[in-house]
Specification:
globular, 145 residues, alpha+beta
Amino acid sequence: MSDVRRYSDAVTTGRVGVERDRVVFEYALLRVVPCLERGECVNAGVIVYSQERGFLAARWSLDEGRLRAVSPGVDVAGVRRALEAVEAMCRGGAGAGAAGRERPGQRFRWLTAPRSTVVQPGPIHGGLAEDPEAELERLVDRLVR
């Protein structure tokens, strides 16, 4: 049974305390789409948000060989800058511009809004985790590397 289903069952049966060490988190895959018309993509990173823990972070690992196989003329440096900007937005603060002053949830919603850019978020998924940061690393290993 999936973590989300277990949490849903715990909520509907009033047994939420059973999962008290685990918190709800949301995540989105970051995809590099070098040619919007073709729609081909390379998974490059993950954003994880947990409202309960006030956690928002992104990790990425760019496979340049795979990216160049999809699009030989891709601006790899530009893609790296875009991925670094996502990390900065997750950290917040002055380095993330005006949006860096927003709450983590607002920044997550902004980062995961659909857009037609080279770095695009995938759909938002959810789950349960004891440690959102460890879950972020697990997801990057599983979905990106």
